[in-house]
Amino acid sequence: RGAGETLASGSSACAAAAVAVATGALTPGEVAVQMAGGTLHVEVAPDLALRQTGPVAPIARITTLDPHFS
Predict the structure, then answer these.
(1) Mean pLDDT throughout 34-63?
(2) Using an 8 Å Cβ cutoff, are 45 and 28 in contact?
C-alpha cells in the first residue's frame, strides 16, 4: 500500500506461531516471535487459542481536521 515495511505485526506474529504449533514444528506454549520492531510473545494453547504480550510504544502523533476522527 506504499506505506513501507511494517516493523511489527501482532496478527502476523500470532499466525506464524499458530502455524508452527499446528504443523508440529513447535509444541504448544509460549513462542517468541522476533521482528524488526521487537519481539512479541505469543502463547499458543493446544486448541490453538492465542494470547500475545509484548511492549507497546507510540510511533507517531497525528492531528486531523476531519470531524469524523475527533
Answers:
(1) 90
(2) yes
Does 54 have pLDDT greater than 90? no
21 Cα distance to chain centroid: 16
> How far apart are the two ends of the chain, measured CA to CA in Å?
25
Q: pLDDT band at 1, cuts 50/70/90?
A: low
Cα 62 to the chain's mean position, in Å? 22
Query: In which band, very low, low, confident or very high, does the pLDDT at 17 lie, cut at 50, 70 and 90?
Result: very high
How far apart CA 52 and CA 42 sit, in angstroms, is 4
Contact 43, 28 (CB under 8 A): no
